[in-house]
Amino acid sequence: MAYFMGNLYSKSLLQDTSFHVILPHDGRRYIWKEDPKTLILLHGLSDSAATWVRRTAIERYAERYNLAVLMPEVQRSWYQDMVHGIHAFTYITDEILDLADRMFHLSVKREDVMIAGLSMGGYGALRCALDRPDRFFACGAFSGAYDLKDIYRMAVSPDGDTVLEGLAEDYSAIFNQPDQIPDEVLIENVIRKAASSGKPLPAVYMMCGTEDFLYGHTCAARKLCEENLPDFSYEEWPGHHEWDMWDEAIERMLKRFLGPGRKDFE
């Protein structure tokens, strides 16, 4: 595998931004006869474009499943086109795929592109996939922070989790009024709109640890997905909001959508 990290200029973000890429190439033990699938992998609230590579075995999984992995950075934008800030939703759903085509000559056909993410990126992946079903054939949503209103309530609570420190200020920049989130970005409305659109929808794999502080968010989103999405699968197992969970989740997702992979890549 080839691994590149660097910066590129984004028209959507109006700035240079970090970008990490894993690309298949002629292997030391095996040459793939098929073109690779493309995966956009989204980070969480306190992470960066580098965190998936630092905390998981994603490079090894990419080799096992013949996968190109694009890991962008969108700061604390919640994958929104912010009122006062970057246009992260447009960057993820449009510009990145254009860059993948022009810079890395990857397939950006719908049948070849997946998106996945954790926590803030779990919400981001599900929203991007369902709002732009023409772009993605599959989505992985891990331990998602799906309830944006509840996240705000937790952030401003006197005994709120320190992981959400600064979120009220983030929401002010994203939505202008931090306690007035537009209906169209709420995940329940995103799911119902996608279901009623008549468009082919991506397959969705969702997971969460049963001790995760966002487990309630997943239970509510899971119910809506089961009621509205034609191809939805869910798994849970004991665990918290932690990287051991997401390292296992990403391979489970890849196995579900791409088959068993090549076990000689160990």
Protein architecture, described:
The chain has 266 residues and is α/β, with parallel strands linked by helices. The protein has a single domain (2-255), classed as Rossmann fold, CATH 3.40.50. It is built from 9 helices and 8 strands. The chain has helices at residues 51-55, 58-64, 88-104, 120-131, 148-156, 167-175, 187-196, 215-228, 243-258; strands spanning 2-10, 15-23, 37-42, 67-72, 113-118, 138-142, 203-209, 232-237. It has an 8-stranded mixed β-sheet with strand order 1-2-4-3-5-6-7-8, sandwiched between helices. Strand 7, helix 8 (215-228) and strand 8 (232-237) form a beta-alpha-beta unit. The longest helix is centred in the middle third of the chain and has 17 residues, at 88-104. It starts with a strand and ends in an 8-residue tail after the last helix.
